[in-house]
Amino acid sequence: MKFYELCKKRYSVRKYLDKEVSRELIEKCVEAARIAPSAENVQPWRFLIVDNKETLKLLKEKAFSGIYRATRWANSAPVIIVILARPDLFANKIGSTIQGINYYLIDIGIATEHLVLQATELNLGTCWIGWFNVKGVRKALKIPKKYKIVGLLTLGYFEYNENLSRKRRKALNEIMFYNKVGK
Known about the structure:
Elements: H1 3-9, H2 23-34, E1 45-50, H3 53-63, E2 79-85, H4 89-99, H5 103-121, E3 125-129, H6 134-141, E4 148-156, H7 172-175
Antiparallel strand pairs: 1-2, 2-4, 3-4
Helix pairs in contact: 2-5, 3-6
């Protein structure tokens, strides 16, 4: 698939088929993330794959209850990937203090987008979730404090909806400027 077509095909999937995703396909997706670039080649990303039904059930109960119920649509996902960060002292902590930018989040965004686009090419759907109970996830999965929980990513088979992949996007001239910032 041509890259631009792949980008146009990808959208956030919120309804999954009840179909298992093979670990071979999951590993292809994570491999695409693994080769992403990062500041100072720190590679701060870690991906905790949750595909065991009992563990998934516990994770979903802890992540999507109470004020986080808006994301309970994720209960249909056969795989949830917990996106973790392991920031480096120099590139991430000192660099972010001086520049005011958390570079590890940029790095993780790049790596996760690699994963998402690989999934799309494999006809798997994904959706990045930022609204979930972080403490509940940490406790349910016994994630050590040395890892920051950055987000969750659903993964699974879905029925492709061409209309959803055609969401309105701003025009190029609204988001791009040459040589000086426009209106």
